[in-house]
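Data deposition worksheet. Section B asks for the primary sequence of the deposited chain exactly as it was used as input, without tags or linkers unless they were present during the calculation. Section C holds the resulting structure in token form. Section D is free text for depositor observations; keep each observation to a single sentence. Incomplete worksheets are returned to the depositor.
Section A, Depositor: J.P.
Section B:
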Amino acid sequence: MQQDKQILTNSDILEKALSEIENKHFAATEQFLEVHDLVFEDNKPKIERLDTESEDGTAIVYLPIKGEKFFLAIYLDTIPTAKVRCIGTEPYNSVRFVASSENLDLKELSEMTTLKYSTGKNKGDKRGQYGIWNYSSISFEPNQEPDAFEDKLKKLLDYLEQDKHGISNLIEKGDGYIQVAIEFHNANTMLGGPHLNLESIKRLGKLNLAIDFDLYVGGNSFE
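Section C:
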């Protein structure tokens, strides 16, 4: 089976996904595109990410939506050939470790760990057109691609565990914690929600990490 999977190229998978967008074999595709517009690039729907990490041969094609943060997701089987299995939406998921301080600057925060930070700011930096930040902060978000919350959390913990001592310092001196922001498609009242499995809870406990959730909805309801 592994050999069958390798015969398929990414182009084969993407071609099948784009064919679904054009021909709308699934009612869900037609229903979604009646109330949302895809982002186009070179006269074709833009592909934000092709996810082929699943061990069972499932591929997921993520397409951005004009004016929205969440994604249209096309799920395909790739064994033995590329075939669209179903259509859905994937929430926008941001999963990052953040730390802040009113007394320490960004350089001092960054020097507490060997890990490379994603974003940061200093106390006194401009905040919008008129304001200024009254604290310094640093954040680590190794996976910024479209992905499921559970996968993003796992990848973040994998990253943080590379320097447990440094993360412990940021937790102690910078009130470090994991910050999660999720924006669902406002399709109906059944939004779902993030899942923390036992393994993730154990890993959070070993790092002495708290986790905070901000949940939003966006987009248009189905007609």
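Section D:
DSSP finds seven helices and 13 strands in the chain.
The longest helix spans residues 10-23.
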